[in-house]
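Forwarding the complex inputs:
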Amino acid sequence: MIYLQILVNGLVLGGLYACIAVGFSLVWGVLNVINILHGTFVVLGSYIAYFAYVRLGIHPYFSIALAGAVLFAVGYAIQAGLINRVIGAPVLTTLVLTFGLDLILNNATLVAFSADYRTVQLAHPLGSKVVGGIVLPLDRVVAMLLALALTGLLYLVLVRSRIGRAIVAVRMDAEAAALMGVNVKRVYAITFGLGALMAGAAGSLLSLIFPISPLASTEYLSLAFVVCVLGGLGSILGAMVGGLALGIIQSFGALLIGPQHGLTVSFGLLILLLIFRPTGLMGKRGYE
Amino acid sequence: MIRTLPVLVVIALIAALPVFGDNYLLRLGTMFAMYAVLAYSWNVIGGFAGYPSFATAAFFGLGAYAGALMQGAGVPMPFAWASAGIVSAVFALLLGFAILHLKGHYFAIASLVIAQVLMEIATSWSSFTGGGTGLNLPVLRISIEAQARLFFWSMLALAVMAFLMNVAVARTRFGFALTCIRQNEDASAMVGINPTLYKVAAFVCSAVFVGAAGAMYASWVFYIEPGDVFRVLVSVKPIVMVMLGGAGTVLGPGIGALLFLVLEEVVWRSFLSVHAMVLGVIIVALIFFLPRGVLGLVRRRKAAKVPAFSPGRSA
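Prediction (whole assembly, two chains):
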């Protein structure tokens, strides 16, 4: 039974991991940019949820919309104003640029909110429910379901909507898409905005579970890395599978070798995957 | 092409710093030399071969721990430094065969994560590495001034070695092969260059002096901890320096290291709480306004002076 419980814990964690990683994966896949800012975007989403709850009494489930909208605007502006100018430059250029931007944004967050860890203390927590001997922490389960729903929504947007088709077209072949009348730069900006939106939404949900601090950004970024490499790059399904797999692996890793080694487990896994299977569990095409 | 005499004069002038400088200036000089070691080392893999390596922190931290542990076990300081360089080089050799088949972002991430893994290991393996509380090194029984000079000259000697390595790379078939790999790896394999071999060799070159510098740094500051020597910034700073100076050139990394140190020092003094932010602004400005570094700027000026229809310049 303990194993089943750990599996459930892992799935709950993994759903949230998928939501963190899916925006990162989208940006990497479509723009070929590793967005070092992603971790800080998640943290910003958490802060928005925190202040929305403390000041306005908006439950973090609902501040997803607020955090998503704000982060979309931030992401769109950053891509349209800055990153678009160096798109297509060598990997190192975009990587170092987003690193520099992250130094700025993360430092600004640190100055604005200090490094203190804050937590959202819900006035009316949902508590937990025992189903067939398995404890379900309801706040987390709902957060995880929302995270998966958002991820699914992003999938629908990509598959069904006009802008989604444009994003997929640009990812397949930017030049051909431009010839078909797609404004590629605008699609890049929207894609980056969507990536930031997902990060902000994930941050909102995570504010219910993890302590909030600017210092947490590197851990979220690392998680996004691992999930993308684990699941394979650039597909929503890959991020979902990768997120759930990482959640389960971390939960069992915590049981077998101790919770303090969670990060080491995921990094070790990442290295092994990169060495032996760089396309990931689900990946078929190699984006280099 | 660089001329020998001016370079020798510059090195001699830097080496004479203890004659007219105080301890503060010597500390800066030692920092400069250390930055130059890191920048010149990264230039081999990142500049010449064009592989976006973030493994500098791994080599640096590994060297720092190897040196500190050896010194703690009673190995004389210079031997500890040299052995630390060898430890990092061997590590780079093994790591290179494992991850250099990756390209682009995948290589960048793999090299980045290696340092994180080593940091986690150093933090958790407390019985061997002292864990998160760090390691203290034996204190030297010489005066503060003598120590400052010793570490300055040692670090400078290492920087000169790293510089000479760059000269050697640039002037031999090795550098030519690396440049070919940067431009087109598949084509370079077609003309008889073994990319794997050259890349691994470049990776080892980018590790050996960094490892020794890590050990020297440990002896210099007497105390190391995982979060200090394995931090991501140790990997990023040399990249910024090389980009600041001019990647794939022999003078660029040295110039970049100097400029970076000056910027950092000014920033540190004036804006302590927003230090990272100002560094970020420098990086962003660098990418937009100086994409090919200071040397690229100079080159462009020179190129602009050449008449448009001069013989030998085809359209």
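DSSP finds eleven helices and two strands in chain A.
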